[in-house]
C-alpha cells in the first residue's frame, strides 16, 4: 500500500515550551461566559428560545460535537513544529470545554434530555507526522474517547473513531479495533488526506469496509490559512479559508464521492456532512439542472475530466443520499434549506460544540431553537433530535 508523504515541519520556535505551559494552564481555567452580545446574522445563542432549549426534556442526541481526551490533548499541544497544530493552536487553546469535563458538564446541564456522540477535535491525525506517529495518535485518541463514553454514559452516548488514512490498511485495522473492541458507532474522516482526494483508488478498501460495518461516517472539512484565496498569494486572508473554504471542501468532497461512483457501488454508506450539508442544498439548481449538462459545454482537451463517471441516475439524486447535521450556528433559514433538500429524515441533530462564542453551550442552544423553529410535525422534529440517528445506528446506541 502506497503511503502519503509525511507533513512538512515548521522550524522550532523560541518560547514554545512556555507556550505549552500557558496552554496547559488555560485548559484548567474556569469557564466564563462571553459578554452579553449577539452576533449579526445569528440566532442569539445566549437566549435563543429558552423554553425550547432548556425546559423540554425530549431526547436530543448530538451527532457532531468535539472533545479532546486530556492525555491526548497534552500530547497534541506538546507536538513541536507541525503546521496543522500551529495553525489551530490559537483556535482551541482558549476553549476549556474541549478538555475540562467539569466545565463541559456544567454547560450541558442547561439542556435536559441531551447527550453527545463525541469525536476528536481537529486537526486530523494525518497531519501529525509519519504514518506510524499518526496511527498512534488515532489509537490513543480512540482509547480516550472510549474511556469517556464508558465513564460518563449519561453525557456521552457513543463516539466516532479517528483513523489515519495516510496508510489505508492501518486505518482499516484501527477502525475494526475501535468498532469491535471499543464500541465505536462510527468514524470521523476529513475531506482530504494532506491534499489527496478521497476518491483515489487507494481508498476504495476503506469505503468497502465502512459499508460492511454499516457505520456512520462523519465528514469534517480540512484546510488552513496556507490554502490561499488566489494562486498569486501565499496564504488565505481574513480567515476566508475557514468561513468559505471549509464549505467548499465539504462540497467538493461530496462531488468527488458522487462522480467517482462511491455511492453507486456502496449505496448504504451513511455520510454525515457537517454544517448542514454545506453548500449543496443552497445550490441545488446548479447541482441539479446544471450538472445535468455535464460535459456538453466542455472543450475537447478537457473532456477526460467530465466523462466516464459510473452513474445510473442524475447527479443530484446521489447528493440527496448524504445526511446533514444541524450545525449551522443559528442560521435557521439555512437549516430550513437543508431539510427541504435532504428531507427531515436525513437531517441529524448536531451542534459543532464547543466552538461557539460562549465556548460550549451557544451552538447547542441555537441548534435546538432552530429545529423548533422549523415547520415540522412532532414526529419529524423528534426524528431530527434523536430518532434519525437511532434509526441509522440501531442497537449500537444504548437507550
Largest sheet: 8 strands, parallel
- Assembly type of the chains comes to single chain
Q: Taking all residues together, what is the mean pLDDT?
A: 88
Low confidence ranges: 1-41
CATH architecture descriptor name? Alpha-Beta Barrel
GO biological process, one term: secondary metabolic process
Keywords: Lyase
GO molecular function: carboxy-lyase activity; hydrolase activity
Organism: Streptomyces himastatinicus ATCC 53653
Protein architecture, described:
The chain has about 400 residues and is an alpha/beta fold. The chain has one domain (about 50-295, about 305-395): Metal-dependent hydrolases (TIM Barrel). About 40% of the residues lie in helices and about 10% in strands. It is built from 15 helices and ten strands. It has helices spanning about 15-25, 50-55, 70-75, 85-90, 100-110, 130-150, 170-180, 205-215, 240-260, 260-265, 285-290, 315-320, 330-340, 360-375, 380-395; strands at about 60-65, 115-120, 155-160, 185-190, 190-195, 195, 215-220, 270-275, 325, 345-350. The strands form two sheets. The protein has an eight-stranded parallel β-sheet. A two-stranded antiparallel ribbon has the order 5-6. Helix 7 (about 170-180) links the parallel strand 3 and strand 4. Helix 6 packs parallel to helix 7 (about 170-180) and helix 7 (about 170-180) packs parallel to helix 8. It is globular, with a radius of gyration of 21 Å. This is 2-amino-3-carboxylmuconate-6-semialdehyde decarboxylase. Keywords: Lyase. Pfam families: Amidohydro_2. One of its GO terms (molecular function) is carboxy-lyase activity. InterPro entries: ACMSD, Amidohydro-rel, Metal_Hydrolase.
Amino acid at each position: 500500500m502506497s503511503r502519503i508523504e509525511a507533513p512538512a515541519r515548521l522550524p522550532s520556535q523560541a518560547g514554545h515550551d512556555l507556550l505549552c505551559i500557558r496552554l496547559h494552564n488555560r485548559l484548567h481555567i474556569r469557564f466564563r461566559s462571553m459578554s452579553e452580545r449577539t452576533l449579526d446574522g445569528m440566532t442569539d445563542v445566549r437566549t435563543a428560545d429558552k423554553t425550547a432549549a432548556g425546559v423540554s426534556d425530549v431526547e436530543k442526541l448530538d451527532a457532531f460535537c468535539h472533545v479532546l481526551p486530556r492525555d491526548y490533548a497534552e500530547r497534541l499541544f506538546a507536538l513541536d513544529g507541525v503546521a496543522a497544530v500551529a495553525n489551530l493552536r490559537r483556535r482551541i487553546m482558549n476553549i476549556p470545554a474541549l478538555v475540562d469535563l467539569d466545565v463541559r458538564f456544567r454547560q450541558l446541564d442547561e439542556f435536559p434530555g441531551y447527550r453527545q456522540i463525541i469525536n476528536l477535535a481537529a486537526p486530523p491525525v494525518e497531519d501529525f507526522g509519519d504514518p506510524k506517529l499518526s496511527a498512534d495518535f488515532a489509537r490513543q485518541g480512540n482509547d480516550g474517547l472510549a474511556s469517556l463514553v464508558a465513564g460518563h454514559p449519561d453525557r456521552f452516548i457513543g463516539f466516532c473513531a479517528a483513523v489515519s488514512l495516510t496508510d489505508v490498511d492501518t486505518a482499516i485495522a484501527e477502525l475494526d479495533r475501535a468498532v469491535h473492541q471499543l464500541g465505536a458507532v462510527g468514524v470521523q474522516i476529513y475531506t482530504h488526506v494532506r491534499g489527496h482526494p478521497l476518491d483515489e483508488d487507494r481508498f476504495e478498501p476503506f469505503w468497502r469496509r465502512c459499508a460492511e460495518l454499516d457505520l456512520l461516517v462523519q465528514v469534517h472539512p480540512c484546510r488552513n490559512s496556507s490554502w490561499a484565496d488566489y494562486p498569486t498569494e501565499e496564504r488565505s486572508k481574513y480567515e476566508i479559508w475557514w468561513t468559505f473554504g471549509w464549505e467548499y471542501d465539504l462540497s467538493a468532497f461530496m462531488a468527488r464521492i458522487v462522480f467517482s461512483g462511491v455511492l453507486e457501488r456502496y449505496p448504504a454508506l451513511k455520510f454525515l456532512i457537517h454544517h448542514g450539508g454545506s453548500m449543496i442544498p443552497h445550490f441545488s439548481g446548479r447541482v441539479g439542472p446544471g450538472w445535468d449538462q455535464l460535459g456538453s459545454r466542455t472543450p475537447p482537451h478537457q473532456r477526460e475530466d467530465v466523462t466516464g463517471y459510473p452513474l445510473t441516475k442524475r447527479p443530484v439524486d446521489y447528493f440527496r443520499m448524504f445526511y446533514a447535521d444541524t450545525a449551522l450556528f443559528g442560521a435557521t433559514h439555512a437549516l430550513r434549506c437543508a431539510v427541504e433538500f435532504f428531507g427531515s429524515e436525513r437531517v441529524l441533530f448536531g451542534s459543532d460544540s464547543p466552538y461557539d462564542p460562549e465556548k460550549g453551550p451557544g451552538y447547542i442552544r441555537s441548534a435546538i431553537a432552530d429545529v423548533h423553529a422549523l415547520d415540522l410535525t412532532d414526529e419529524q422534529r423528534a426524528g431530527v433530535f434523536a430518532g434519525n440517528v437511532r434509526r441509522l445506528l440501531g442497537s449500537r446506541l444504548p437507550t
